[in-house]
Amino acid sequence: MSGVRLLVTSALLGGAFSPTLAQAETGPDTPTDSATSPNITVTGVRSITRDKLAETIATAPQSIDVISHDLMEQQATSRLADALRNVPGITLNAGEGAARGDTVNLRGFSAFNDFFLDGIRDAAIYNRDSFNLDTIEVLEGPSAVVFGRGSTGGAINQVSKAPMLAPLWSGSVVGGTNSEIRGTADVNQPIGHDSAVRINVMGERSKVTDRDLVSNHRWGVAPSLGLGLSGADTLIVSYLHQEETDVPDVGIPFINGKPAQVPRNLDYGLASDRFRSVVNIGTGYYRHKFSSDLIFSDTLRYGDYTNFNRFNAPNFGYNDSPGAPTATTPLSTVRVGRDSPSSSDHRTNLTNQTDLTARFATGPLRHTLVFGTEFSREQDTSTRYVNPFGDPGETPATPLLNPDPYEVSPVEAARTRSVTTAYGSAAYLIDTIRIGDMIDVIGGIRYDRFAAHYRPSALIAGVSAGSLKPLDHVDHQWSPRASLVFKPSAHARIYASYGTSFDPSAEALSLSTRNVNLAPVTARSYEFGAKFDWLDGKLLTTAAIFRTQINNAQITDPDHPTQIQLAGNQRVDGAEVGLTGRITAKWEITAGYTFLNGKTLYSTTPGATGSQLANTARNSANLWTEYEFDHGIELGVGGNYLDKRYGDYAEQATLPAYVIVNAMAAWTVNEHLLLRANVNNVFNKLAWVNSYYTDAEENHVIPAPGRTALFTAVVKFR
Predict the structure, then answer these.
(1) What is the pLDDT of residue 40?
(2) Cα 621 to Cα 623: distance, rounded to the nearest angstrom
(3) pLDDT at residue 18 in the model
(4) What does the alpha-carbon distance between residue 200 and residue 311 come to, in Å, rounded to a whole number?
């Protein structure tokens, strides 16, 4: 293993409103004026996992990247997926047919089901907006002891804005060259001496530069009520509603293993394509402080998610097709079919988490002991529609160089419906032991039981009876974790950590006859790193090397091609390094670099053994730096670098490396008004950011938006 990289903490571009990194050493009960929710504190000070872990972001023996709301505002970022580009080591994926909701690779492994909201699993298909987010935390490496199933590459936790005891009235309006009009409002009002109400709202209409048909329409509202914020008993009740109706981006096809050499504005979907999602999430959080050494907390969450996805994606396997074009096929002769595996889903998640934290001493040893339980019920009702692709009545194929987005596609009747219900229960114990002032030992163990029940039904005649068999599966899994931290000084920490993860067959609430009898895929990870703070805690540097390995990945059984076996072997050796904070009182910086050597060590997929993991770049880097001049002027510049990567495990489809540069200028007119201009993709770079590749016929790749200017006005009263 070799390489280096950073823990990107969040207090970057907040100016006077951001704490110094030295404040990360404050205790879990330190009062704050930014967000007095007991488990959501000042940006960058403590992780949302504070009810489970005793460490701060800066002291945790794990790579943790934090993206603050201030940083997202400075970069004019309104999407979770865009904000995650501040974390090197993350690559974006595209779903079958289109980029259906947020889906990423983290440290070389898929993190599709590893999104969390305030520490509770947020498993659903939708595009997450940042209007109600205070920070985004990326915990890298297996974290099953904290989060349960999944998290092979890590976990992505969204931290919501919470009621606070200081009044705030804030609003923003954004206009852009991408026809964007976006408005947000954030109002917080104290009620008495220890309670408050807060509401965030958002509305947006926008297009995507150089993607002719793609458009976004969304709105959201998020009220919350906090009672007893400064007392022993605290109750926070919150609700999130978000809707979107988009014309999805189905991208451009690969030809001969490379993105087709066509203008990036061409769209191979139809103007009638739609992706619609409706999200409703209600949460209740209660915390009782018996004393500073004994704290009880409980979170109850119900989420209801619906989505409808009707699309027509490029595919060369249409009816009477001559097959995928080759390097010698004239582009003027190539026709592209429209594949339409459309679907709709209704998902509900009911989760309860309980934690009891106790601090005590046994002789010279000081303990922070967390005991917790988690119970959940997840249910997904999925409807699949008849796909006319490949039949005589399919949507007509269209010329590659002159696609017609106004073809009329056939009516798609519902074909099958399935209901998958999963019950999860878990108990965990985590002990942080401080031995003097220089040594911390952290040990944890978690037990999970995950039971899934799959019930399919046919909605039209002709569906194979064999595909409608009810299936049931239960997994029992233990997940350990251990860390050792050495603190040679108050400003230095050196650590070694071991962690595990597991992915059940029904991880994404999907079972089939091929995987119903398989045990979970398991991973283990080793990480060695160091964190140093400088300039009285204003600047933080981090570095880590790590290895994550799976020895029982799901692969096709070579003797029985219709079955799957647990015999695959994948490994990622990597390193990270980074820098974040203030170099001077007026100069701030966020920078990070990640090296990933991801390999498939064994697979039955032809050409995969010895190849680089799909959608995993060996080198990636990010930079954002900003300087505050006199008279309220601020200038910022930065960008992202992503190395060459492959769209598949056999290295048949290549996505070239790219650098995208972004810039910002802002003027604080007075204490209430700020004006900002952002230019994203300054040099109008043609960059390929999302990809999906099954074979030479079924694939697509989605380009980054072209040069886009955004103009923002922010009004704020405190």
Answers:
(1) 31
(2) 7
(3) 30
(4) 32
CA distance 297 to 653: 49
Per the structure block, which two tokens stand in for 216?
């976004």
Which residue matches tokens 């007026």? 586
- For strand 115-117 and strand 154-160, is the pairing parallel, antiparallel, or unpaired? parallel
Q: How far is Cα 73 from Cα 14, in angstroms, rounded to an integer? A: 9
Question: Looking at residue 498, what is its pLDDT?
Answer: 95
- Supply the Cα-derived Rg of the chain in whole angstroms: 25
Q: How far is CA 103 from CA 78, 84, 146, 595, in A?
A: 16, 11, 21, 21
Using CA atoms, how far residue 151 sits from 61, 370, 554, 581, 625, in Å, is: 17, 20, 16, 28, 30
Taking the C-alpha atoms of residue 92 and residue 612, their distance in angstroms, rounded to an integer, is 16
DSSP 397: P
d(CA 59, CA 38): 19
* Helix, coil or strand: residue 17: helix
What pLDDT score does 17 carry? 26
- Say if residues 707 and 679 touch (Cβ distance below 8 Å): yes
Residue numbers in the chain where pLDDT is lower than 50: 1-46, 97
**Model pLDDT for residues 142-159, shown as the tens digit of each residue:** 788 989 998 888 999 999
The residue to which tokens 């490949």 are assigned? 390
Residue-wise pLDDT tens digits, 306-364 = 999 999 999 999 999 999 999 999 999 999 999 999 999 999 999 999 999 999 999 99
CB distance 665 to 637 below 8 Å? no
**325: helix, coil or strand?**
coil
Distance CA 575, CA 619 (A): 10
Q: What is the DSSP string of 272-324?
A: T-EEEEEEEEEEEEEEEEEETTEEEEEEEEEEEEEEEEE--EEES--TT---S
For residue 427, give the H/E element and its range.
strand 414-435
pTM: 0.91
Sequence-ordered list of residues with C-beta below 8 angstroms from that of 318, at least 6 positions apart, any chain: 335, 337, 338, 339, 389, 390, 394, 397
Q: Which residues of 500-533 are buried (b: 16+ CB within 10 A; e: fewer)?
A: bbbbbbbbbbebeebbbebebbbbbbbbbbebeb
Residues 449, 374, 305, 284: what is their CA dihedral angle, to the nearest 10 degrees? 170
d(CA 215, CA 249): 8
Q: What is the rounded end-to-end Cα distance, in angstroms, of the chain? A: 50
Helix (H) or strand (E) holding 546: strand 539-557
Q: Note the helical H segments in 596-652.
A: none
Structure tokens, 113:
């089901």
pLDDT score for 536? 84
The three-state secondary structure class of 418 is strand
User: How much of the chain, in percent, has pLDDT values that exceed 90?
Assistant: 72
Structure tokens at 517: 């009898």
Beta bridge partners of 181: 175, 205
- Alpha helices, DSSP H only, in 75-151? 80-83, 144-147
Angle ∠(421,426,429) on CA atoms, nearest 5 = 165
Question: Distance between CA 107 and CA 142 in Å, rounded?
Answer: 10
Q: Which residue type occupies 678?
A: N
Half-sphere CA count of 613, side-chain side, radius 13 A: 29
Of 80, 90, 74, residue with least CA distance to 620: 90
